[in-house]
């Protein structure tokens, strides 16, 4: 499992999210617990930080999420790798299993959820044309890939100067399809301060696998 955890948490405004506490433990601890079963756990931390945790390798992250994942990927050894955001603590085992199975079968897979609201274009602050929300999905993590495929995708992106917000886009840019599997709305990404209220509430009822 590759865990890009080197972000600065700018939109949240509480410092790097790896050390953000939810339900009395850090997001890093949530993620490591969710992947306690994984053969390899590689974590990118903000530059200047280092940690010691049995069975976990920590590496300095990059300027962007993509760079952090690339750094981890170069050290990964598994045939299939899962890439997960540290900012998504509520990962049900069933989601990780669905992604893993689909990645083994199709080479690349990502969990998605439906768009719950009306979706429109913002045209200079005015209500623009609606988008057919049934055709769209919100993309989550973990995303799963054959390691060689993801490495090729990252290398090509670096050569061509392609920057993307997730790994699936890089694989897609290679021309390789990415299978979609059912995600979980509880696996939302803690991004803005109000997300913390939801996260604290969820942490109170979350059952550890
Ligand atoms: N240079 C970076 C930037 C982001 N990430 C990781 O990528 C994931 C998704 O990023 P996001 O939730 O947007 O976190 P931040 O980058 O920390 O948030 P912000 O954009 O508000 O600073 C997070 O697990 C984050 O730690 C990373 O490893 N290295
Ligand atoms: C990878 C990701 O979680 C997929 O939804 C997301 O793109 C990362 O967040 P960011 O805000 O784009 O860094």
TrEMBL record:
Q: Which UniProt keywords apply?
A: Isoprene biosynthesis, Nucleotidyltransferase, Transferase
> For this protein, what reaction is catalysed?
2-C-methyl-D-erythritol 4-phosphate + CTP + H(+) = 4-CDP-2-C-methyl-D-erythritol + diphosphate
Question: Which InterPro entries does the annotation name?
Answer: IspD (IPR001228), IspD/TarI (IPR034683), IspD/TarI_cytidylyltransf_bact (IPR050088), ISPD_synthase_CS (IPR018294), Nucleotide-diphossugar_trans (IPR029044)
Its UniProt pathway annotation is:
Isoprenoid biosynthesis; isopentenyl diphosphate biosynthesis via DXP pathway; isopentenyl diphosphate from 1-deoxy-D-xylulose 5-phosphate: step 2/6
Record keyword Transferase present: yes
- The UniProt record lists the EC number as 2.7.7.60
Q: In this chain's numbering, which residues are marked as the site (Transition state stabilizer)?
A: 11, 17
In the record, biological process GO terms are: isopentenyl diphosphate biosynthetic process, methylerythritol 4-phosphate pathway
Q: Which GO terms fall under molecular function for this chain's record?
A: 2-C-methyl-D-erythritol 4-phosphate cytidylyltransferase activity
Q: Which PROSITE patterns match?
A: ISPD
Q: Which residues form a coiled coil?
A: none
Q: Where is this site: Positions MEP for the nucleophilic attack?
A: 133, 189
Function of the molecule: Catalyzes the formation of 4-diphosphocytidyl-2-C-methyl-D-erythritol from CTP and 2-C-methyl-D-erythritol 4-phosphate (MEP).
| Family statement drawn from the similarity comment of this UniProt entry | Belongs to the IspD/TarI cytidylyltransferase family. IspD subfamily.
This protein is called what?
Answer: 2-C-methyl-D-erythritol 4-phosphate cytidylyltransferase
Organism, by scientific name, is Allomeiothermus silvanus (strain ATCC 700542 / DSM 9946 / NBRC 106475 / NCIMB 13440 / VI-R2) (Thermus silvanus)
Gene name tied to this protein: ispD
């Amino acid at each position: 499992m590759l865990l890009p955890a080197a972000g600065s948490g700018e939109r949240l405004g509480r410092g790097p999210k790896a050390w953000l506490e939810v339900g009395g433990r850090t997001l890093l601890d949530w993620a490591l617990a969710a992947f306690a079963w994984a053969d390899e756990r590689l974590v990118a931390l903000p530059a200047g930080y280092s940690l010691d945790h049995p069975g976990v390798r920590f590496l300095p992250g990059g300027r962007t999420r993509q760079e952090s994942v690339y750094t981890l990927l170069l050290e990964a050894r598994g045939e299939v790798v899962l890439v997960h955001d540290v900012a998504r603590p509520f990962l049900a085992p069933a989601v990780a299993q669905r992604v893993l199975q689909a990645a083994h079968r199709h080479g690349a897979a990502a969990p998605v959820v439906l768009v719950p609201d009306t979706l429109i274009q913002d045209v200079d602050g005015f209500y623009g044309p609606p988008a057919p929300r049934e055709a769209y999905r919100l993309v989550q993590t973990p995303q799963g890939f054959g390691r060689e495929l993801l490495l090729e995708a990252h290398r090509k992106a670096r050569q061509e100067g392609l920057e993307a917000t997730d790994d699936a886009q890089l694989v897609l840019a290679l021309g390789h399809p990415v299978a979609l599997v059912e995600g979980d709305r509880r696996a939302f990404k803690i991004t803005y301060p109000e997300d913390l209220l939801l996260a604290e509430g969820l942490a109170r009822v979350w059952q550890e696998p």
